[in-house]
Structures are given as structure tokens and as C-alpha cells.
Amino acid sequence: MRLNLLAILRRRCPACRRGRVFRRVVAMNARCPECDITFEREAGYFTGAMYASYFLGLATSMPVWMTMLLLGVNPGLILGITAVQLLVMSPLLFSYSRVVWLHVDNMFNPFVPPGAEG
Known about the structure:
mainly alpha
């Protein structure tokens, strides 16, 4: 039971690790083009991706604002630069947070391929 970081970085399906989760940066496939699993298991499924998004946003912005803080940059400027950075990165944070959520959920509650339910 472990996460496959390469599959996450490549935004691949958590079940087969071959199919693309996203067609474009923020255009998500409803099903895996390779193994045909449905990504959104139920309504509101991606609510959990908010936690991944928060962590990814913090992990990507913290080095920038910590460096500026240590260099004595004005706190207002730090806030502005960090806000712009997160705004520019938001499409990537959106897609990667969903992929991370899919992989973490699959680790604890594996996807069942279509036709194997019964």
C-alpha cells in the first residue's frame, strides 16, 4: 500500500497508472481511457481534494514567502507576490490536488474495474 509518485506527477489513473486523468490542464476525463474506471465515485467526491490543494499550495508557496521574509521584504509585498503566485499556479494546483486525492483514496479504497463488481 503506497503511492506511486511518478503516476501522480504524470497525472495518471490510480488504478492502472496508464490512463490520463486530465485531457488538458483543467479538463478532467470522467473515466479512465485505459481501464474505464469512473474517477468521481459519488457526488461531492472531490471535496477531499481541498485538503490536497491546501497542502500543495502551502508546499509551493512557503519557500517563496519564507525566503522573502528572511530577506526582510515588506510583509505587504510578500502577501501580494504569494497571492499572484498562487493565482498563476491555481490550474496546476487544481489538477494535481484531484490526482493526489484519487491516489490517496485508491490506496485505502481500491477502485474496482467495470464488470468485476459482482
